[in-house]
Amino acid sequence: MSAFDKAVQKGKAKAEELLGRATEVYGESHGDPAAEAAGEARRLEAEAEEQALEGGADRADEDDDGRAGAR
């Protein structure tokens, strides 16, 4: 995948994430649990897609639970 294609895919994922959040907020403010759930699902799927596109950028920190003592 070229750098341009990757940037386009990340942009699409971010747009889906924002649309999901907007749908979720609409559901919360209008008392519509179906819209709230659909928005949350759309947002979470977009976040997962965005993380998958990033590859291993943040994987070094995944094992750190914050409980290791100082050396």
Task: Give a description of the structure.
This protein is mostly helical and 71 residues long. It has one domain. It contains two helices and no strands. α1 runs antiparallel to α2. It is flat. It starts with a helix and ends in a 17-residue tail after the last helix. The mean pLDDT is 85.
Question: What are its keywords?
Answer:
mainly alpha; single chain; 71 residues; flat
What's the helix and strand layout?
Layout: H1 3-30, H2 33-54
Protein name: CsbD family protein
Region (Disordered): 24-71
Biased composition (Basic and acidic residues): 27-46
The main pleated sheet reads as: none
Give the overall shape, derived from the CA principal axes: flat
H/E topology pattern: HH
**Cα end-to-end separation:** 41 Å
Summarize the structure.
With 71 residues, the protein is mainly alpha-helical. It contains 2 helices and no strands.
